């Protein structure tokens, strides 16, 4: 067992304490939201709910599961997250791989063009006019295509591709492999860490889509979950079909509990997916940190 000096032990204790405090500042508000989503309306209104449910009830979740508009928004969010992440990874890899190879003549110019987009961004009004002229407004494509390639993620993936030995690519070409075969059989299998890392970044960005949907989509049927949650906070509208089995119980309920339940439903999928990709995520974050 490794022995630490007194200074190292003090530092480790301070480090653990500090990180525990930071973790609590993130965890406690989440626990409060969970508690409110499982508490009665009276307890929420009277501010009795802390970190544990008061007058435990599942009526808030029963309402969410009975509201078709929330499920529709959830479906839209899942769709743009899955399809958008696939588009992002394919588009980013398609651009990053060629410019990572020395034999590509125009790679420096392409890298410079991408770098410019990190420094200069178009204002909102010209962006809206462009989206409208392309007939993307009030379609889900407006949430998928404009941000197909993130400049930052492009440079991360390019850095990873540059670490793949050129001799491996050359030997594959000598064996008769075309570029598509090289990418599908050699480059992508070796790129799982960076794909997982950037996939998480892209997926979280799509899952939290808010401003773009607010600017470019006016149809309630196309609202993602974050916009639906915002509208719910604005209107306090908890109307539901009177024939529903939860209608009578909701007649005197507080919309706060329902909002908290929607927040939990909007947060849990990303939290549940992250542990399965954590190993690749940590490995991918080390890309470019060590130079040979």
TrEMBL record:
- The transmembrane residues are 12-31, 70-97, 109-129, 141-161, 182-204, 257-277
Q: Does this UniProt record's set of keywords contain Transport?
A: yes
Q: Which InterPro entries match?
A: MetI-like (IPR000515), MetI-like_sf (IPR035906)
Q: Pinpoint the ABC transmembrane type-1 domain residues.
A: 74-277
GO term, biological process aspect, one:
transmembrane transport
Q: Name one GO cellular component term.
A: plasma membrane
Topology class, membrane: Multi-pass membrane protein
The alphabetical list of record keywords is: Cell membrane, Membrane, Transmembrane, Transmembrane helix, Transport
Localization annotation: Cell membrane
Q: Sorted alphabetically, which PANTHER family does this protein's record hold?
A: ABC TRANSPORTER PERMEASE PROTEIN MG189-RELATED-RELATED (PTHR43744), POLYGALACTURONAN_RHAMNOGALACTURONAN TRANSPORT SYSTEM PERMEASE PROTEIN YTCP (PTHR43744:SF9)
Protein's UniProt name: ABC transporter permease
- Origin organism lineage: Bacteria, Bacillati, Bacillota, Bacilli, Bacillales
